[in-house]
């Protein structure tokens, strides 16, 4: 069942006693960003030769430069082996958040950034939270990883648990708040002051520049939280 909630189109699904609701536009835009990134990966993959003796194509040279830059900037403090394992994950997170932020500058009615939806940012933060525990247990051993919550004193276990999950909440709300705040400010300027130039400039500023900064911050924090777990 579809329902108009303000300017949002909400899809309701009834699965037995469970009622699930989706912001349809957010879901479709998020899927479109995923499809675009998958197409971009396929396009770059086509530029890679299977012959190790062949000269580098432009796509291959571009891909190598991007991967080396990402590994240096996002995973510089990790051991080389672990950095190579984490590079696809952290780079995918960065690109996904980046294009979700950038999609708001497209001159298409009703298209909004999926990262304006707290469900999206919280899901991404929970993914990082789960992966931090996975890599922490894998690299240090499960017993050592769990024992870290009892340090420096066992009675601090509740505070350590709260602080650990509090990072995840902060991770989600930081991205959500900055992206939504930019959208609200742009809308207020457009409604109150009417000229097209200023709102368009603000949209480009918050969509492109601030969107890129927030994507980088999100990826750097994801890397930092995993690094804390494995250290």
How would you sum up this structure, described in words?
The protein is mostly helical and 231 residues long. The chain has one domain. The chain has helices spanning 24-46, 58-74, 80-102, 118-140, 142-147, 157-193, 197-230; strands at 2-5, 8-15, 18-23. A three-stranded antiparallel β-sheet has the order 1-2-3. Helix 3 (80-102) packs antiparallel against helix 7 (197-230), helix 4 runs antiparallel to helix 6 and helix 4 (118-140) runs parallel beside helix 7. The radius of gyration is 21 Å and the shape is globular. It starts with a strand and ends with a helix. The model is unreliable at 1-6 (pLDDT under 50).
What descriptive keywords fit this protein?
231 residues; mainly alpha; 3 strands; 71% helix; 8% strand; globular
In short, what is this structure?
The chain is 71% helix and 8% strand. By secondary structure, it is mainly alpha-helical. It has a 3-stranded antiparallel beta sheet with strand order 1-2-3.
Overall mean pLDDT score? 83
Please give the share of residues in helix: over 70%
How far apart the termini lie comes to 48 Å
**Shape from CA axes?**
globular
Order of helices and strands: EEEHHHHHHH
Number of domains: 1
Q: Spatial order of the strands in the main sheet?
A: 1-2-3
Number of helices: 7
Strand content: 5-15%
Low-confidence stretches: 1-6
The count of DSSP E runs of length 2 or more, i.e. the number of strands, is 3
For the CA atoms, what is the radius of gyration? 21 Å
Please identify the structural class as seen in this structure: mainly alpha
**Biggest sheet, open or closed, and with what strands and sense?**
3 strands, antiparallel
